[in-house]
Amino acid sequence: MNRYDVIIIGSGLGSLLCGYILSKEGFSVCILEKHSVTGGCLQSFRRGDNTFDTGIHYIGSMLPDQTLHSYWKYFGLSQTLDLERMNGDGFDVISMDGRDYRLAQGFDNFVDQLAVDFPSSGDFLKLYVTAIKDTVSAFPLYNFELTDNPAKTTWMGTNAWDFMSSLAGDSAENRRLLEVLSGNNFLYAGRKSSTPWHQLALINHSFISSAWRLKQGSMQIAEHLISSITAHGGRVLTRTEVKKISPLKDKFQVSATGDEMFVASRIIAGIHPQSAISILEPSIVKRSFHSRIMSMENTVSSFGLYLGLKPGRFPYLDYNLYYHAGKDAWAGPKCKANEWPGMYFMYTPASAKQGDHTTALCILSYMQFDEVKNWENTGKGKRGLDYTAFKNERAEKLLTLVERKFPEIRSVINSMEISTPLTWCDYTGTPQGSMYGIRKESGNYLKTMILPRTKIPGFYFTGQNLNLHGAPGVTISAIMTCSEILGLDYLFKKIRDAQ
Ligand SMILES: Cc1cc2nc3c(=O)[nH]c(=O)nc-3n(C[C@H](O)[C@H](O)[C@H](O)COP(=O)(O)OP(=O)(O)OC[C@H]3O[C@@H](n4cnc5c(N)ncnc54)[C@H](O)[C@@H]3O)c2cc1C
Prior knowledge:
Blueprint: E1 2-9, H1 13-24, E2 29-32, E3 44-47, E4 50-53, E5 59-60, H2 67-74, H3 77-80, E6 83-85, E7 92-96, E8 99-103, H4 107-117, H5 122-137, H6 151-156, H7 160-168, H8 172-181, H9 197-209, E9 211-214, H10 219-231, E10 235-237, E11 242-248, E12 251-256, E13 260-269, H11 273-279, H12 287-295, E14 301-309, E15 320-324, E16 343-347, E17 353-354, E18 357-358, E19 360-367, H13 385-405, H14 409-412, E20 413-419, H15 421-428, E21 459-461, H16 470-486, H17 488-497
Parallel strand pairs: 1-2, 1-13, 2-10, 7-15, 13-21
Antiparallel strand pairs: 3-4, 5-9, 6-9, 7-8, 11-12, 12-13, 14-19, 14-20, 15-16, 16-19, 17-18
Bound molecules: flavin-adenine dinucleotide.
């Protein structure tokens, strides 16, 4: 028997941050990861000389005293990560209507740069930026503060599109700007009818504060955290899938790959709650809780091209490009097969930069899981020729859209890897390959909210399904989860003392 104070399921960012906190606090911790590689969405992979990131392409608020920097200082990440600052006057470029619009770093600069293209929209831009700042100040942990703010729940129940529309009014220029401000909604799998305003505000606030790429790829985050956890006496086991969790007196018994058994007083599930519920022994899960979790809907999945490029032929972009084929920035996730892809997100990894050029390019678009459902019960590498044909056909369609802006694209490609929603199922175990897990709904926010503490004593959730996905959201979730064990005041003081 392997006995621990805490077993953490999965080795994604949330799990690793919890593992770091608790092992540092003297708990015996063991992280169980089903895959051969740790990190979940933090994984990078190599093809030839190129390193491709999969689920972290850029991070925000990493200047000293900004939110993520402050938290990641406690974890030793702020001091260690090799970062490259993105273009100050346009870290995200929204391409729409045959024009490029730049989202700049720094709130005043953000307003100034957009005012060049939207000279009559100054008032709307100022209202938008003020609303983003007000919203963030209602979520104290996003401001590196503790005092709770009741305005939080109002923002969570506010629909992003409706709210922004109310700020924009009827002016034609403001309405066009509204689409541009929504143009990076791939960041939160935006849905006009349901995306809560606070998601848009918290995510954009982080990147407008400052936007960065990871020079050596996102895997450096996982590598740093794992070596720290190990140094604190913790263990991280790969190829160890948790199959079942059962009660054992006042503890839990965990069965994993190869009938290996573990015992722990506490379990933290850093995996999708639907996956977690399905491995918990039914006798310890209340029926109502089971049905609530299982009935929650997930965000859409993605389709990706990871291209190796001929040297010196394609420019290194110090920004991300969000290209939209039409005028509706929110059309992407619901795009029908015959209209697909409708939009794409493009970025060049910092690790592939060679002077002004890049040797690698990553292009992602939305894809519904239904598109690959036929092959859901097939194994990686054994999905058959029809699956390969499907992937190639979609790659062609995506490249055809890319050609509109980059006519040379096909002639500069050396190699191509393709990912579909099934790839995400294989590598992160997320149901339907969902990008950001459970879909939060402004109209029913409480119903789509997952709390770190459950009604099962000693069983906790962490990761992107809690309050928010992405680096800051998952970091704050990890702090909320561990504060259920350590106490928030105590933990926050420790984090503050590290500044
Ligand atoms: C395409 C894409 C692009 C993104 N881009 C960005 C970005 O640029 N910036 C940003 O900040 N965020 C980005 N995100 C979001 C961010 O990557 C995620 O929110 C975050 O990394 C999720 O972390 P997590 O802890 O929830 O776990 P995950 O990364 O989902 O990891 C879960 C882990 O659990 C393991 N597991 C599952 N079941 C079991 C089991 N039964 N037993 C053992 N192990 C198990 C999985 O193998 C996996 O390793 C992106 C996400 C996607 C999908």
